[in-house]
Amino acid sequence: MAKKGICILGSTGSIGTQTLEVIEANPELFTVEVLTAQNNADLLIQQAVKFQPNTIVIGNREQYEYVKNELWQQDIKVYCGEEALADVVTNENIDVVLTALVGYSGLKPTINAIKAKKNIALANKETLVVAGELIRELVKEHQVTIYPVDSEHSAIFQCLTGEYSNPIEKIYLTASGGPFRGWTAEQLKSVTPAQALKHPNWSMGAKVTIDSASLMNKGLEVIEAKWLFDLQPDQIDVIVHPQSIVHSIVQFEDGSMKAQMGLPDMKLPIQYALTYPDRFKTDFPRFNFLDYPQLTFEQPDKSTFRNLELAYKAMNMEGTAACALNAANEITVQAFLQEKISFLDIARINEETLAKTPLITKPTLEDYIQINTAARKLAEELM
Ligand code: MG
Fold first, then answer.
1. Distance, CA 123 to ligand 1 centroid (Å)?
2. How far is the CA of 191 from the centre of ligand 1 (A)?
């Protein structure tokens, strides 16, 4: 494999730091071209000194002077702000842009990267949830590839390798069920952010961990899968698998099913997204069947965990519905983390926002931006 130039949007978060671990373990495969962070200036500085990227961006303008001063002896360009973030992805030495920004903020830089003909390693699922239709058109027009980093979608992608144009009959996205699997609405009334932040199997950022506890993460992943693999809503099923060993399953038209398995470790899907179609040796711990004599599967509880049902609803509504739902969810998750609303309020406000936000069919980028703003405002008002 020729050395690939990597840009990491969101290098100080959970996915970003694990991506740098993968790169550090394979210095003959990758060069780090661009690193960006929103607020964590100290970690960004450390990463810049260690990996010597061409360019870094600190999102928060107030940290710019500090970062620049700390790196004055280094041959590294330092920029700040949202526009710089959207600009740096076009750098000519970049082969792959790994998007690990949280939420809606990933949309503009991803669009710019696609327009600059960069392949995308997509960890920021919200980009496809918000504007899947538009992104799919851009991907076709600019002939780039999106390599999924989300573990379930990486699993599907791995199962499809070598299948050429064999149609998919159905996919099963697996879900751990999160920390509240089996809980009743009554029990969920008083859960705290600290409880919701304790995920049984995966170590992740705060937003995705709360989304996992509320099953919104799986809902967003259903929509992400629709756009990544060009599926109809009824071709996507969710099955709860508490051990998180089977990462997802594809069922083909002859009834054959392929699953991708392994211990839950995001470094594997990250590495596969960066080295596709090759596999490189790792020292990650290996799965042992005897440690897991029983792998179990069950139905998700969609009536208690309303968010999953809402995601299907938004997907069926098409247009800007998923954009509105995602916007509401970003507001409600933040409010829950700040203890302004209860856990059950998340789905309640998400549902009301989805119902009350205007629906635009065949949306343009401007429509998505407008609906995102309107839905956020509405969700705030519904608190
Ligand atoms: Mg996932």
1. 9
2. 23
